[in-house]
Amino acid sequence: MQSAIKNDIKKTKREPAKRIDYIMLITVILLVIIGVLMIFSASSVQASYEYNDSTKFLRSQLQFAAIGFVFMYIASKVNYKIYKDYVFIIYIFNIILLILTLSPLGVSVAGAKRWLNVGFKFQTSEFSKFACIVTTAYFINLNKYTMHKLKSVIIPIGFLILNCALIYVQPSFSAMSIILMVGLIMIFVGGMSVKFMLISAVPFGVGIITLMMKQQYRMARLMSFLDPFKDTSGRDWQISNSIYAMASGGLFGVGFGKSTQKYFYISQPQNDFIFAVIAEEFGFLMSVLLIFIYVFLIFRIFRLFVDTKDTFGKMLVCGIGLQLGLQTIMNIGVATSTLPNTGIGLPFISYGGTSIIMFLSMTGVLLNISRYRVSKRKKEVVK
């Protein structure tokens, strides 16, 4: 009997199980549906004013979501180990995209060059999130027995710094920060010693603070976080109205589509502050339920992390889970004024073509990895 179980476990290293994690898939689809509905509600006023079409953002997001699901399906069918074989092509392609963004081919919006025009505005830092996860996972897998040594962590950190430097000059401080955090935590989880982690935390922390202080608007965001009601008609306008929106929702909300703060009191309500509109229209209880859905999704990803035995696959799961979790925490933290304003979207829900395409694509990678998982608790192939 034990011999048969061992043979089954060995077999899974060569052959995938027959089913993906459908619970994870259903959870992601639910979040996308919530996002589409809330984008329509949150953006209808602005879309009517700017484009004379209340469904402008809704139709765009539906198109992007459809493309994202196609990419998710393809990624769920492609063996995740192929990314290991093409890791340098992925990374170099990512660097080329970032450089092109800074060239005349880049699209400038509000003084920032973060997009390329490829028929639609493609935000290159969104692809960087995946490219850096793959690259970091590759080096952790390559040096899995020596990650406690400094020479094994210097190279992946160097790749991260080069990528983040190109994103910083766009400028996109929030994207740079979250990519750096995800990469460093992956390296730590991959085996970096606590001593090296503590030593590196000092220069990285000082560097982040220094970069933040170099721009006046970043310091203004920090001051707004410390006192969100000091200048409600100026510096604190966004965050104070976000808080007003959530307070107006009470326990059960004012009803779908009945938000008042979306009437130009919140800037881009379909994007960075969409959680505030959700809280206003559906109330505290539904907001908590939405947070629970995200927590449940992270739990499913954590289970996949535990059940994945291949180091490269395990670190891909770790990186994608960290990206999703940290970005969710940062977005909701900003909307509730528990974190300084970072200008980052809520995964699967906020408006943004590149974001939803990349998050759905990364979900496809997770689904593919789930086909190869082996449950250590049950000691049997997951079929």
TrEMBL record:
Keywords from the named record: Cell cycle, Cell division, Cell shape, Glycosyltransferase, Membrane, Peptidoglycan synthesis, Transferase, Transmembrane, Transmembrane helix
Primary location group: membrane
Enzyme class label: transferase
Domain of life from the UniProt record: Bacteria
E.C. code: 2.4.99.28
InterPro entries the record matches: FtsW/RodA
Family, as annotated: Belongs to the SEDS family. FtsW subfamily.
Name of the protein: Probable peptidoglycan glycosyltransferase FtsW
Biological source species: Peptoanaerobacter stomatis
